[in-house]
Design a protein that fits this description.
The protein is of the alpha/beta class. It has helices at 44-51, 74-82, 99-109, 114-127, 143-155, 173-190, 201-207, 225-230, 235-244, 251-260, 280-287, 318-330, and strands spanning 2-12, 17-28, 33-37, 59-64, 67-68, 84-88, 161-165, 193-198, 210-215, 218-224, 265-272, 291-302, 305-315, 334-339. Among the domains are: 1-83 and 191-243, P-loop containing nucleotide triphosphate hydrolases (Rossmann fold, 3-Layer(aba) Sandwich); 251-339, ACT domain (Alpha-Beta Plaits), CATH 3.30.70. It binds adenosine-5'-triphosphate. Adenosine-5'-triphosphate (ATP) binds at residues 11, 13, 18, 20, 38, 40-46. GO terms for molecular function: ATP binding; ATP hydrolysis activity.
Length: 341
């Protein structure tokens, strides 16, 4: 659906040239929710502006549905851009227009007749959960409701791709989750391809299928969200993953746990995907004469299955403990002995 080849954008800053996007190659499938994460200045906004044709690349190409955005001009470019819609961190609504009128705006521009426009607006209002608020002005809405208007407006002309530029960064955690749920719902119902940029790993974890990590204009890591959580390779990716996993690996935490649980072994288990639903602990306790205490646990759900960590205190004869740990490894549970008694 989206193909970026050797995509590069160099800005002339007056003080020399700055490579904001550096030879990026990406292939995003139809119906995928694809996340791009990076710290400020990594090049995410520039990349997204290249995707919707607002910025011209210095070199390389952007193809959407086999159409080359970078070569298109005039009517052709406008048509290609209609397939791509966008929502923003600060919503970018028209303040003097009501909810209904904001959603209707892109339909007016596209020349859709009034009756058709009204029917489409009603559909969209319902889709984003704003029934009853049609005549409110943006100033009368909460942040989450404003973003719902932004989403409805973006969907008005039936785009194939929705770009989300830090779409939940201005929202509180609960509202963020509700908006992310809405995006997943829309992705499933309409088969819409979603590309989002963010600096929050929570957003990636919750809704994305795949993720690209950007640093210094380059994609430094790319993979399935679950895989990236399981084994982040780059230092920067590890830092992003640590945003949402327990701070259980820190030296202080381990020391603290050792004080609380001075005997036996402290073992950290990492469950990925289906494993999180299997009765592995039941089997362990049945097969080995050891005592197992749950010290700490955390399960996160991604679009591709669950990811969880569990810290156990295992007490018993050393060879039985060793056997229990071996059993976990045979069951393909990633296991780390955290501290010795
Ligand atoms: N129009 C421009 N002219 C010159 N430099 C620019 C321009 N736009 C972006 N840059 C520079 O390109 C680099 C990448 O910026 P970009 O905004 O794409 O990063 P980002 O990852 O989106 O960060 P942020 O989240 O802060 O927007 C930065 O060093 C930025 O200063």
């Amino acid at each position: 659906m989206i193909e970026l080849k050797q995509l590069t954008k160099i800005f002339d800053t007056g003080k020399g040239s700055l490579t904001a996007v550096d030879h990026v190659n990406l292939s995003i499938a139809t119906g995928e929710i694809f996340g791009i994460i990076g710290y400020s200045g990594a090049g995410k906004s520039t990349l997204i502006r290249l995707l919707n044709g607002l910025e011209q690349p210095t070199s390389g190409t952007v193809q959407i549905n086999k159409q080359n955005i970078t070569d298109s001009k005039g009517l052709e470019l406008r048509k290609a851009r209609q397939k791509v819609s966008m929502i923003f961190q600060h919503f970018n609504l028209l303040w003097s227009r009501t909810v209904k009128e904001n959603i209707e705006f892109p339909l007016e521009i596209a020349g859709v007749p009034k009756q058709k426009r009204q029917a489409r607006v009603s559909e969209l209002v319902e889709l984003v959960g704003l029934t009853g608020r049609e005549n409110a002005y943006p100033s009368q809405l909460s942040g989450g409701q404003k973003q719902r208007v932004g989403i409805a407006r973006a969907l008005a002309n039936e785009p194939e791709v929705l770009l989300c530029d830090e779409a939940t960064s201005a929202l509180d955690p609960e509202t963020t989750d509700a908006i992310l749920d809405l995006l997943v719902d829309i992705n499933k119902r309409l088969g819409l391809t979603i590309v989002l940029i963010t600096h929050e790993m929570h957003v990636i974890r919750k809704i994305c299928h795949r993720v690209a990590v950007m640093e210094g204009g380059k994609v430094v890591e790319l993979g399935d969200v679950l895989e990236v959580f399981q084994s982040p390779k780059e230092e920067i990716t590890k830092r992003f993953v640590a945003q949402v996993t327990e701070k259980e690996d820190s030296h202080e935490t381990i020391k603290h746990l050792r004080e609380l649980y001075p005997t036996g072994e402290l073992v950290k288990l990492i469950f990925i995907g289906d494993q999180a639903e299997q009765p592995i602990l039941t089997k362990l306790i049945r097969n080995f004469p050891v005592e197992v205490n749950i010290v700490q646990g955390d399960i996160a759900h991604t679009q591709r299955g669950a990811y969880g960590t569990l810290i156990l205190q295992i007490k018993g004869e050393p060879e039985q403990i060793a056997g229990a740990i071996q059993f976990l490894e045979v069951e393909n549970v990633q296991t780390e002995v955290m501290a010795n008694a």
